[in-house]
Amino acid sequence: MEERKWWHTATVYQVYPKSFKDSNGDGIGDLAGITEKLDYLQDLGITILWICPFFRSPEVDNGYDISDYMDINPKFGTMADMEKLIEEADRRGISIIMDLVANHCSDQHRWFQEALKGKDNPYRNYFIWRDGKDGKAPNDLKAAFSLDAWQKDEKSGQYYFHQFAVEQPDLNWANPAMRHELYDMMNFWIGKGIKGFRMDVIELIGKDPDRKITANGPMLHPYIEEMARETFLGKNLFTVGECWNANPDETLRYTNGKELDMVFQFDHLVIDEGKNKFDILPFDFLKLKKTFRKWQEIFADRGWYALVWDNHDLARIVSRYGNTDRYWKESAKMLALTLHGMKGTPYVYEGEEIGMTNMDFVSKSQLDDIESINFLEAEKEKGRDEKELLRLISLRGRDNARTPMQWDATRNAGFTSGETTWLCVNPNYRSINVAAEESDPDSILCFYKTLIHMRKEGKYSELLVYGRFDMLMEDDEHIFMYTRTLDGRRLTVVSNWGDSEVEAPAVGNDDRIILSNYRENGSVLKPYETRLYANC
Ligand code: TEU
Ligand code: CA
């Protein structure tokens, strides 16, 4: 039996502070807004709250470009607001984990401003500088939110390395002074009562740009081990790393006890991606199942898995793998049970629990995200049609996840008392909102609540948390079916992933349905029907 950890029974809720709840009417979500909604989160049953960056930032990448790690973005409030939030969350049994952006900072950070002063500045070596080659960048590495990963500094003539926007210079992890300053910062937050970290693109910190190695670099694990020892290890905190390129070996290394508790990997969320996220391929259901089976098996008895559909970088899952035309509610619940029935720690991204959908962006002025805007501009230059590009952005752009949380049917979805919001509210808030779903026992929200509580406590908790996973009917084109077993007790999840009826597969004689998205369950599975059976 695996060693038990306090977070094994937890479901994590992710908040994007700019979009969750505005407390002062300026149209921007804030920390006091999160505090206002803690009762809602407690009622939902979540026990870990991951809050995206709330630090000082010029917001080129909405807070993932940090200019002061130990200060609060004034738009979000003050340090006193943060302290209050931590305390109030703690009172409700909710542990707050913060986003650690350790691969890069903002070009407005004091370290970078100092570094720009010249080659002799003590902070120069906090970043990665190289001379150009024949008047060009040192090599052809590319960045995520701009073309080249090297940016020339006219004053010194040297280039600095950045894997994201030009305004997000990469930190130089080879410099121990820089590393220890980051550790001090982490310990500062641990001292404030933070219970752990979600580590942004942590897989990139071991980079070796001269050899064109970015993810999974040679020094990656030594750095993480050192960071763990210097900060969170042995303090009963919770850590999760963001690792787009994690393979099984890497992942087991991350979770070997000396590094992180778990990592996010996204294989099941890129199966319909071609060259990049806006190059959309047909959805391959069999590949999806195979991917889940593979990762569930890897973590069968070591390490731990993060179960995730949605986050602030992804389009809304019900719009992607569900069906928002005719089976919005059914498919949202089906997706929820399919994921939450598996082994690992489930993550719920704000609004996922009420079935929030993608937005239909029809003009560039509605967009905020640097990734989408840069994509739109670059592709337009190549002669592509703006309408078509906006269609792709509406399907996959990050702003889909960032439209304000839909609390009720009043103006601006009850997100703000103000007239305007920093990003448009999805017009479907009149029907899709928390208030409507709270008063409806058949809602997506209530379904999520049931799943979260079932994992946390009660009769099926242990089975859901520790039960062995076995995929069934892996070659079936419509049905996602698996069992979780422990000491002869068994749960079976059966989901129909299509909009037509299919024959319901046979289950064990003692199995009875304990949860479903249809009131009546017969010998066929209705469109998007999902069932949870138990033999105990
Ligand atoms: O995202 C990691 C990352 O690699 C992104 O480029 C991701 O691939 C992209 O958003 C998918 O469309 C993290 C954060 O989650 C993201 O919000 C930040 O913009 C990024 O790091 C830079 O800090
Ligand atoms: Ca505000």
Q: Which molecules are bound in this entry?
A: 1-O-alpha-D-glucopyranosyl-D-fructose, calcium ion
User: Radius of gyration from the CA trace?
Assistant: 23 Å
- Poorly predicted residue ranges: none
The amount of beta strand, in percent, is 15-25%
Secondary-structure blueprint:
Layout lengths: L11 E4 L1 H4 L10 H6 L1 H7 L3 E4 L3 E2 L11 E5 L6 H13 L3 E6 L9 H6 L13 E2 L19 E3 L6 E3 L14 H16 L4 E4 L20 H11 L7 E5 L5 H7 L7 E3 L20 H14 L7 E2 L9 H4 L7 H13 L4 E5 L20 H12 L4 H11 L2 H4 L31 H5 L5 H13 L4 H6 L1 E5 L6 E8 L2 E8 L5 E2 L8 E5 L7 E2 L4 E5 L2
Parallel strand pairs: 1-2, 1-13, 2-5, 5-9, 9-10, 10-11, 12-13
Antiparallel strand pairs: 3-4, 6-8, 7-8, 14-15, 15-16, 16-20, 17-19, 18-20
1-O-alpha-D-glucopyranosyl-D-fructose binds next to loops.
Plain-language structure description:
This protein is 28% helix and 15% strand. With 536 residues, the chain is an alpha/beta fold. The strands form 5 sheets. An 8-stranded parallel β-sheet has the order 11-10-9-5-2-1-13-12. Strands 14-15-16-20-18 form a 5-stranded antiparallel β-sheet. Helix 11 packs parallel to helix 16 (444-456) and helix 12 packs antiparallel against helix 13 (386-396). The mean pLDDT is 97. It binds 1-O-alpha-D-glucopyranosyl-D-fructose (TEU) and calcium ion. 1-O-alpha-D-glucopyranosyl-D-fructose is lined by residues 61, 64, 101, 144, 164, 200-201, 242, 244, 277, 312-313, 371, 398. The site of 1-O-alpha-D-glucopyranosyl-D-fructose has 14 residues, from loops.
